[in-house]
Design goal:
Low-confidence stretches: none
Number of helices: 11
Structural class: mainly alpha
Radius of gyration: 20 Å
Strand content: under 5%
Shape: globular
Mean pLDDT: 93
Order of helices and strands: HHHHHHHHHHH
Number of strands: 0
C-alpha cells in the first residue's frame, strides 16, 4: 500500500469521509506498519482533513467506527513503535485501540507490553470487552498456539503469575475459562502443576482446564517439536483460509 492509497480509500464512499469512506481499520493499521513515521504523518493529516470521529456512537444511536481513536493509536505506533503505545495503555479511552495494534504486531516486545498492562490489572470487570480482559485475550491468541510468538522463560513465568491472579479474581465462568486458555502460552512444569491441582465446579471451566492441561503437557513432552519457519507459515495460511 503506497502513501496515496489510504487517502483514496478515505475519500471514497459509500460512507461519508468523516466515517472513513471505504477505509477499514485493518487498512490503517497495515498502512502504519508499512510506512512507519511517514504513515503516521499521513494518517494525522487525513484525520484533520476529514474530521474523523472520536465517538463511535452518534446522537441517533447509530454506531460508526471511531477512526480518530484508531488514528491516535496508529500515529503513536508509527512514530514510536511498541514503546509509543505504552502511554495509551494507561488511558481508558485509548487502551483498547493500543491493545488491538499490539495484538496485530505480534512481537516479543508487544507481548511484554501487554503483560506489563495485565500485571497491573485488578480483574474486577464482568465485561469481556474491558481492556484488561481484551489484553489477556490478545496474549492467549499470541502465545497459546504452536505458531505463536516465541518468548523466554521469564515471560512464561510472568504469564503464569498474571493468569493465576486473573483466574482467582475473575467474576464470571467465561472469564475463568479465558484465563485457563491463556495459560497454554506458559508451557512450564509450574503451569501444569497449577492446572492439575485446580478444583473446578463449572462444566465449561473444567473443559477449559482439561484442554489447557493437555496442551501444556504436550508442549512439555520431550517429543514435542515447535514448528519451524516454513511450518509456521503453512499453519498461518491454513488458519487464514478457515476464516
Amino acid at each position: 500500500m503506497n502513501l496515496n492509497a489510504l487517502a483514496r480509500k478515505a475519500a471514497k464512499g459509500p460512507a461519508p469521509s468523516a466515517y472513513g469512506g471505504s477505509m477499514e481499520v485493518e487498512d490503517m493499521v497495515r498502512f502504519t506498519r508499512v510506512h512507519g513515521a511517514a504513515g503516521a504523518d499521513e494518517i494525522e493529516r487525513l484525520c484533520a482533513q476529514h474530521g474523523w470521529l472520536s465517538n463511535g456512537l452518534l446522537a441517533d444511536g447509530t454506531r460508526v467506527v471511531p477512526f480518530a481513536r484508531w488514528a491516535q493509536a496508529c500515529v503513536a505506533f508509527g512514530r514510536g513503535g511498541v514503546a509509543g503505545l505504552r502511554p495509551l495503555l494507561a488511558d481508558p479511552e485509548l487502551a483498547s485501540f493500543a491493545i488491538a495494534i499490539l495484538d496485530d504486531v505480534k512481537t516479543f516486545e508487544s507481548v511484554q507490553a501487554l503483560l506489563g498492562f495485565c500485571a497491573a490489572a485488578n480483574w474486577q470487570s464482568t465485561d469481556a470487552t474491558h481492556a484488561e480482559w481484551q489484553a489477556l485475550s490478545a496474549l492467549n491468541l499470541m502465545l497459546s498456539l504452536d505458531d505463536g510468538v516465541k518468548v523466554d522463560q521469564a515471560v512464561m513465568d510472568e504469564l503464569l503469575r498474571v493468569v493465576v491472579k486473573a483466574y482467582e479474581a475473575a467474576p464470571r465462568p467465561f472469564l475463568k475459562s479465558l484465563c485457563l486458555w491463556t495459560v497454554r502460552g506458559a508451557p512450564t512444569v509450574q503451569a501444569l502443576a497449577w492446572l492439575q491441582q485446580l478444583e473446578v465446579a463449572e462444566a465449561d471451566v473444567e473443559g477449559a482446564r482439561a484442554t489447557a492441561a493437555k496442551s501444556v503437557k504436550r508442549r512439555l513432552s520431550p517429543n514435542y517439536k515447535a514448528p519451524d519457519a516454513k511450518a509456521r507459515r503453512q499453519i498461518q495460511r491454513a488458519r487464514a483460509a478457515d476464516v
